[in-house]
Amino acid sequence: MPEARTLTHPGPIAAERITTVPCAASRQRVTLKAGYTLLQAMTDAVGEVGAWFDLDDIRVDTLTFVRPAPAPGDGHVAWYSAQTVLTDAIILKGGAHLGRREGAAFAHIHGLWSESDGTRHAGHLLAEATVLSADHLVNVWVLEGAILETAQDTETGFTLFRPVATGPIENPSAVLATIRPNMKLDQALITSAEVAGLQVKVIKGLGSLVGTYWEGQSAIIDDATEVLLTSDAGLGAIAVGFSGPAISGNLAPSLNRVCVTFEVLLLSNPA
After folding, report:
1. Contact criterion met (CB below 8 Å) for 13 and 266
2. Is beta strand 51-66 parallel, antiparallel or unpaired with respect to 136-144?
3. Phi, psi (rounded to 5 degrees) for 190
4. Mean of pLDDT over the chain
5. How many Å apart are CA 52 and CA 33, to the nearest integer?
């Protein structure tokens, strides 16, 4: 049995390893409009609020994405590849946290997409550089009481999302959380739910792992993988490393540690 790997980041280790903010989440069906960037379509649909979007089978004129890449030698544990731009593509499976960066709307999106010839790719999609080719009806969970905001992170050297409270909530139905480097993902998800005192039914989330270890198939051994959770219990995932194909399956328990960050929305009432 392999050991769950850890990485050494350039800054001091933060004392708080899991940050949680209780909130309320309401499920809506909204239309993302053709001709707009994905980011603009998302904010037109729900406003500049905290939200999670399920993005499935969405046709786009232009799709821009990056993959994880080896560390650049400046202390970061990993970096990003050059941008790849596809035309006439389909977002097959995606998930998006909508939040704020420097006071403006910003989306963090991971997923799996396909070129017109069927070639598949996965990674980190740039919502501001992806343009929809048709209207699409999607599921979104709009948050009250919490949002993800970017801030410079001393430990990792990256600018990262962190959950912040936007107002009091009497009866929380969800928790917005971020998980810090080297935490075991499955255990951190359990801890996040326990801290919030919620009976969690559905987990939405994305982030990076130190490699990705699966049940019943070979691991991705790169130092960083981009990951989207795909099952209600947070066990199913799509992951991609530096150069190999996207892999989907169930994550092996106790072997997957967070690389840079993992951002999750835990829902007690997903309907």
Report:
1. no
2. antiparallel
3. -65, -45
4. 96
5. 17
Q: Are residues 212 and 241 in contact, defined by beta-carbon separation less than 8 angstroms?
A: yes
Burial of 151 (0-12, 13-18, 19+ CB in 10 A): exposed
pTM recorded for the entire structure: 0.97
User: Which amino acid would we find at residue 213?
Assistant: Y
Residue 17 near residue 180, CB atoms below 8 Å: yes
Give SS3 for 238: strand
What is the Cβ-side half-sphere exposure of residue 160, based on CA atoms within 13 angstroms? 22
| Cα–Cα distance list, 41 to 25, 98, 252, 265 (Å) | 20, 12, 36, 21
Token couple for 208: 């990076």
User: What is the C-alpha separation between 64 and 85, in angstroms, rounded?
Assistant: 4
How far apart (Å, rounded) are the C-alpha atoms in residues 256 and 181?
A: 11
Digit-coded pLDDT (tens) for 184-198: 999 999 999 998 888
Sketch out the chain's domains with CATH numbers: 18-23+144-267 (3.30.1330), 27-142 (3.30.1330.80)
Closest alpha carbon to 17 in 236, 145, 185: 185
Check the CA dihedral 137-140-142-148 and report its sign: negative
CA nearest neighbour of 259 among 181, 153, 152, 154: 181
How far apart (Å, rounded) are the C-alpha atoms in residues 151 and 68?
20
Q: Are 192 and 266 in contact (CB under 8 A)?
A: yes
AA identity, residue 36: Y
Q: Mind listing the pLDDT tens digit for each residue in 12-62?
A: 999 999 999 999 999 999 999 999 999 999 999 999 999 999 999 999 999
